[in-house]
Design a protein that fits this description.
By secondary structure, this protein is of the alpha+beta class. It is built from 2 helices and 4 strands. A 4-stranded mixed beta sheet has the order 1-2-4-3, covered by helices on one side. β1, α1 and β2 form a beta-alpha-beta unit. It starts with a strand and ends with a strand.
Length: 91
């Protein structure tokens, strides 16, 4: 299974979803994309995009620089930002 990271930190609505859609274009079904976003709207907009496009919203995790409430420090992720990591599986 392929995994793609979409770094939309620092971008405001609607840019995180636009970046997600661009990254998803041409990828096969089953591909997992994770959108990193500091925009609070992304935690609602990305699942809505999934529903409209027939993709699966896998999870939304709050990301905190201090490591609380959802845990920073996943392998390969910077830990010095606050926001959300929203995971999608293409249908």
């Amino acid at each position: 299974m392929s995994h793609t990271l979409v770094d939309a930190r620092g971008l405001r609505c609607p840019l995180p979803v636009i970046r997600l859609a661009a990254a998803a274009r041409g990828l096969p079904a089953g591909t997992v994309l994770t959108v990193l976003s500091t925009d609070p709207a992304a935690k609602l907009d990305v699942p809505a995009w999934c529903r409209m496009r027939g993709h699966e919203h896998v999870e939304t995790r709050e990301h905190r620089a201090d490591g609380s409430a959802g845990g920073a420090g996943r392998a390969g992720e910077e830990t010095s930002w606050n926001g959300w990591a929203v995971k999608v599986r293409l249908g």
